């Protein structure tokens, strides 16, 4: 039955049907199909419509198509029989180039803390998806999440080491912010293996650092320390001050997590000195805030304030790192709460949440909501604290975080709600305006606020 539809196709449509079997993802975006075919988007759109009329593909979202699993198997059989190995290899390489180039462009809109990827013109026959804003970048990463993971696995299996590394690096910020930490770790492992085969010391140092970040998120602190130590050794050999700065900062961050105050402050102060010497103002701001965060984690709230305030002034002047800006606002909120100023703390938390929401940073959103709930509770606003904790719980469930249990404990420690009925006066965390609450969740009355409760 498939052959009847296939045999009725025009030669170009039949070729596209065969080549689309090389795409490993669950659905087929038009730009990727154009790259497989080595032709333009307008040309391939007409060919896909022909395939749809023959019921060989199904339209999904705009410019995206799905293929039944059996049809995909049939297409691969036709591809193996009807295309030479050289044609298949060239098409697969164009597909890798499509994802590597598009991911690099998307990452450039994410405000990534990592060293930027070079964005070069794509090779002939490769179409790059049009991405011009952060919102479009987030949407593309979300749509292509499963496909990107499959493409990284495919490139690693094929020994396409440069593609494996570049794809992993380009995905890192998205995976980190969205809490896809197992995917982050899996791709970083592949990037590390690829960098070892490739033999590029700079790529190898970066791969160690990527895997360290993923390991930290998964609370695998011992291997994270080993990867950071190896990265630092490589950056020392390369005489790369920028790489040393980032890695020292990460070692300081890890020191706080393993409750080693001396390690945390020593490495972070070294990062600050390197950043000041090299003029890396963003890392100056991050390091200053890391020192403040370290003091906070050891209940030294007054000592934290000057460092966090200095970091805030730098972040505001730079305007290039909303994630770092959000984190310093969270730290300032904690410092203000610690010195007995919960109202001032709430204002910092609201600003942090607004920045996180715009950046799609779920990780910092969840932690800020928990601190915000504590500030509400300190002010005797039990309903607001409860609603905010439920919001944090929702976010942590999305992240698959083990901290869900801790938030449930926070909720159970609150005084029992009097009557669970709609009420006014509960502030929406990102907006700070009055919202309606049923004692469990919040519904923001601001039309432009799409905060998930």
From TrEMBL:
Annotated SUPFAM superfamilies: TPR-like
InterPro entries on file: TPR-like_helical_dom_sf, TPR_rpt
Alphabetical list of Gene3D superfamilies matching this protein: Tetratricopeptide repeat domain
Lineage: superkingdom: Bacteria
Listed name of the protein: Tetratricopeptide repeat protein
Source organism (scientific name): Saccharothrix coeruleofusca
């Amino acid at each position: 039955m498939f052959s009847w539809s296939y045999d009725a196709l025009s030669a170009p449509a039949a070729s596209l049907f065969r080549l689309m079997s090389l795409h490993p993802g669950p659905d087929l975006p038009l730009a990727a199909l154009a790259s497989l075919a080595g032709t333009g988007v307008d040309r391939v759109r007409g060919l896909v419509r022909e395939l749809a009329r023959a019921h060989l593909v199904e339209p999904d979202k705009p410019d995206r198509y799905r293929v039944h699993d059996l049809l995909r198997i049939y297409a691969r059989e036709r591809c193996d029989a009807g295309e030479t190995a050289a044609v298949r290899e060239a098409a697969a390489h164009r597909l890798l180039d499509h994802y590597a180039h598009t991911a690099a462009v998307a990452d450039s809109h994410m405000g990534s803390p990592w060293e930027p990827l070079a964005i070069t013109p794509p090779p002939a026959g490769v179409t790059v998806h049009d991405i011009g804003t952060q919102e479009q970048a987030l949407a593309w990463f979300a749509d292509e999440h499963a496909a990107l993971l499959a493409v990284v696995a495919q490139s690693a299996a094929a020994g396409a080491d440069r593609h494996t590394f570049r794809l992993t690096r380009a995905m890192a910020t998205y995976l980190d912010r969205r809490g896809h930490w197992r995917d982050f770790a899996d791709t970083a492992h592949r990037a590390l293996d690829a960098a070892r085969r490739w033999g590029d010391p700079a790529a190898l140092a970066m791969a160690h650092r990527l895997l360290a970040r993923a390991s930290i998120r998964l609370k695998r602190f011992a291997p994270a320390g080993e990867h950071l130590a190896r990265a630092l050794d490589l950056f020392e050999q390369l005489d790369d001050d920028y790489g040393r700065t980032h890695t020292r900062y990460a070692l300081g961050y890890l020191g706080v997590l393993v409750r080693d105050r001396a390690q945390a402050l020593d490495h972070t102060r070294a990062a600050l000195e390197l950043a000041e010497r090299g003029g890396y103002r963003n890392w100056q701001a991050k390091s200053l805030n890391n020192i403040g965060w370290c003091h906070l984690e050891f209940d030294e709230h007054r000592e934290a304030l000057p460092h966090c305030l200095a970091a805030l002034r730098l972040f505001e002047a730079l305007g290039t790192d909303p994630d770092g800006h959000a984190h310093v606002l969270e730290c300032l909120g904690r410092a203000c709460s610690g010195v007995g100023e919960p109202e001032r703390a709430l204002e910092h938390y609201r600003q942090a949440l607004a920045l996180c929401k715009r950046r799609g940073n779920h990780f910092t959103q969840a932690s800020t909501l928990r601190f915000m709930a504590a500030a509400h509770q300190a002010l005797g606003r039990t309903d607001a604290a409860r609603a905010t904790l439920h919001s944090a719980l929702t976010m942590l469930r999305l992240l698959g975080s083990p901290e869900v249990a801790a938030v449930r404990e926070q909720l159970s420690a609150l005084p029992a709600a009097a009557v669970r009925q709609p009420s006014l006066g509960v502030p929406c965390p990102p907006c700070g305006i009055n919202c309606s609450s049923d004692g469990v969740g919040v519904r923001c009355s601001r039309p432009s606020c799409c905060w998930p409760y």
